[in-house]
Amino acid sequence: MAGINGSMAHLSDGLFTTAIAVYALAAVGFTAEYAFGRVGRTKAEKAAVALRKPSRELAAVGAPSTAGGVPPEAPGSADVPTSDVSDAAARKRGLAERIGRWALVITLLGALVHVGSIAVRAIAVDAVPWSNMYEFASVAGLVGVVAFVAVMWKLPQLRHLGGFVLLPVILVMFLAGTVLYSRAQPLVPALRSYWLAIHVTLVSIAEGALMTSAVLTALYLVKQRHDRLVTKPGYQPGALANLAERLPAAATLDKAAYRVVAFSFPLYTVAIICGAIWAEAAWGRYWGWDPKETWAFIVWVIYAGYLHARATAGWKGRVPAWINLAGFGAITFNFLVVNIVVSGLHSYAGLS
Amino acid sequence: MSATAKVLRMGWRRLTSMRTALILLFLLAVAAVPGSLLPQRPLNPSNVSSYIKAHGWWGQFLNSVDMFDVFGSPWFAAIYLLLFISLVGCLIPRIRVHARALTRKPLPAPRNLSRLPESGRFETSDAPEDYAAAARETLGRRWRVAQRREDSGALTLSAEKGYSRETGNLLFHVALLASLILIAVGRLYFYEGSVIVRQGQGFCNAVVNYDTWKPGRFAAEGKVGPAPFCIEKLNKFTATYTRTGEPAQFAAAISYRDRIGAPLQHDTITVNHPLRLEGDRVYLTGHGFAPTVTIRMPDGQVVRQTAAFLPTDASTLYSEGVFKANGPDGAKQDIGISGFFAPTPRQTAPGIYTSVSAQVNNPVLGIFVYKGDLNENGLPQSIYSLDTSKMTKIGAANLRVGQTKSFPGGVKVTFDGWTPYANLQVSHDPAQTYLLFSALAMVLGLGASLGVRRRRVWLRIAPGADGAGSSPTVVEVGGLARSDSGNFTAEFAGLLTRLAAAGTPGAEQRTLHDTADDAFDESIDAIGARKD
Ligand code: HEM
């Protein structure tokens, strides 16, 4: 059996740190776009969606009733100054959007470095590199970034929110690199199973994506609260008003959050099934209510609850949003508390 | 209807509502939490006892409400039983409704198409009938289309697609139901036995041969006949290690017969590869060492014994165990030895050894030798512990393989060597293969349920105002997304474009597309209401 390639492991650690730094830079860029970018994006957004698929016959686009006099903004197109804003402000906005686009490029660069770090580690340990918390957190962080880029691909008006996604990713990776770090090590026999490899890969993909969903949901709640407050008489802009005004429409955030769950939930389901297949081969039972399994079950049930709540007439909106956040809370608990605290009490018994 | 019947009906309706399902799901999640945070009896009974001891009345209280066996408790069962009933109750009508929807034509067009979330209009110089035919062709086979004529003379097309979303959703829930049943059936017929098998020995699948035996209800009642297989012999147990001393692989090469009298077969059981026999699986769950000693008894008799030692440290396999040799009855000349085995010994203090690795490298057998009465008066005794209450210690020694030590009274002990043993576990769950298929059906259903886009589109094709064909045909299109996936606004825009292109352009070459803002929920409700 192969041992550990020390210099490769070292290189992987270096790339990991680099990826964190690159993400941090991108986060700064997104935040700049967010802070100086266009307000009122939300109003133009619907029209923008309609325009995104231009076609021969679509000679005229009916102006959406709520869009009023705001000219539609085509995402990705050059900034068109509107008459009611000064040129200087427009230039500032143009710059902000350029920064935002660069931040996206930098994010992709960071993701590449990140992929490199994981790949090199795989070579170093000669196995899939997610057998411990450090490696798992690294993969989940990468998926969080990729999931957000995918969401942005579909909904470009969310780009300036990149900072909100990169921040938790950076946090998770920082934790991974410091508190949770473990040296590259070969796997014990029980962990040498391709079912386990598939299982952990799927879990980290699903959970990384669900992190993105949680961020979008939190922003949705902010926006939704703001929308409710503004209509009240005697409205005073609160601490989050500034943030809320720059966010896309609540419905857009909600939908984006839902789509990420709709993608992740089946993955998570398959992941649990693969885990059960592995457990059957390794421990003789497919399910044993071990704390880790129990929390996987809890997470699964919570997200099933989210999908139900979203399909229940009258419960649309805030109820599912809180369930979504509870689901991510359970994921976090499973990752941090169960791994570090609870497993110590009764961990897997077996060959090690 | 009597009052009771009314209450029952109402109760049933409540129980099978989506809201109740949601609450039950939530309860299920909450109920599972203590099962992960408190020690659980099926997983670790000794932790449970020490927890109860350490927590006084609180521990007693938790125990009385089954907090140490959450997943076997009546209240956990109550929640999932209710969920199960709720699921059945909600599925039956949904399957009926869906079966009807599958055989029925799509719903007639609502009166005002422009009030739908997506709508548009354009003109064509084709006659309504011609355009309808062209539009149907454009929609293609993925849409189910019904054509109707309204009293006003306008033609309508009702088109719907994405039926497999609901089919998938129903498949998911039915498979979920099946899985719950299969899990329960599996638990009833389940059994699990484990046994220590020394290299060179074997065992047959019978309850009496197991060191531990965990039966499900039917197995405990003797309704499950253990599969009649025998592991004839553990031919060789091999542990391989990496250069750095990490375990790499464990393998137990065995010979077995899957029935009495069946031909002998050979296989190798490794950690993730159990031996799969009809109905039963045999796992390798651990390993250890069984040292062999030769004991010269006080009366001159020579006894040779091999005993499996139990690891006290899983990573170094530092193990402990006992040897027991009976002298003549009543003579108080029994010899008992309690000992430890260090595979790769390291001396930490004079005469004190630990083990630094599970690999065997000049091992040490440490022994404490006792003489007297083993106290085996008919009562079953653990083969891993020694009752020294009627014995006196006559000495201790650390032996390497081949070494002999003499003790007072003519007693001699020789450390002859060691054999590896494997912990084998036999598991039986006749439902699990079916459960796997049922789980796959769940995934399939879920994929369709969350991935397929459910869409409704209506076209109202009205002849020109004068009816003489000189003024163009007006086509109104309305669309509704019945699921959140995808970007329906963009989809609709594309569809509208294709529909407009299907006809010969009219005088006015404009295509209007309107996206309503918050109309989504209301129109869903409006459409839903029309169904009944
Ligand atoms: C055992 C617990 C249950 C689980 C894990 C579960 C899971 C799910 C999941 C994951 C979905 C998402 C599919 C989608 O959004 O299209 C769903 C949808 C649905 N479930 Fe359940 N379900 C359970 C019990 C029930 C029960 C008891 C009912 C009936 C009261 C029910 C009724 C529905 C309905 C009507 C939908 C469709 C929602 C839609 O159209 O989006 N489910 N369920």
Give a structural overview.
The complex is a heterodimer of chains A (352) and B (532). Chain A is mainly alpha-helical. In chain A, 69% of the residues lie in helices and 0% in strands. The longest helix of chain A has 39 residues, at 87-125. Mean pLDDT of chain A is 74; it is low at 39-85 and 344-352. In chain B, strand 7 and strand 8 form a beta hairpin. By secondary structure, chain B is an alpha+beta fold. In chain B, strands 4, 6, 10, 11, 12, 20 and 21 form a 7-stranded antiparallel sheet that branches. In chain B, strands 2-3-22-23-1-24 form a 6-stranded antiparallel sheet, sandwiched between helices. In chain B, strands 13-14-15-18-19 form a 5-stranded antiparallel sheet, with no helix packed on it. Helix content of chain B is 33%, strand content 33%. The interface between A and B is large, with 79 and 83 residues. Bound molecules: protoporphyrin IX containing FE. Protoporphyrin IX containing FE (HEM) sits between chains B (16-18, 21, 25, 83, 86-87, 90, 169, 173, 176, 449-450) and A (304, 307-308, 311).
Layout of helices and strands:
The complex is a heterodimer of chains A (352) and B (532).
Chain A: H1 6-36, H2 41-52, H3 87-125, H4 133-154, H5 162-178, H6 194-230, H7 241-246, H8 250-283, H9 291-311, H10 318-342
Helix pairs in contact in A: 1-3, 1-5, 3-4, 4-5, 4-6, 6-8, 6-10, 8-9, 9-10
Chain B: H1 3-15, H2 18-37, H3 45-54, H4 56-64, H5 74-103, E1 118-124, H6 128-139, E2 144-149, E3 155-161, H7 163-189, E4 191-198, E5 203-204, E6 212-215, H8 217-220, E7 230-241, E8 247-257, E9 265-270, E10 275-276, E11 280-296, E12 302-306, E13 310-311, E14 319-325, E15 334-342, E16 345-349, E17 352-355, E18 364-372, E19 391-399, E20 404-407, E21 411-428, H9 432-451, E22 455-462, E23 473-481, H10 488-502, E24 512-515, H11 519-531
Antiparallel strand pairs in B: 1-23, 1-24, 2-3, 3-22, 4-6, 4-21, 5-7, 7-8, 8-9, 10-11, 11-12, 11-21, 13-14, 14-15, 15-18, 16-17, 18-19, 20-21, 22-23
Protoporphyrin IX containing FE (HEM) sits between chains B (16-18, 21, 25, 83, 86-87, 90, 169, 173, 176, 449-450) and A (304, 307-308, 311).
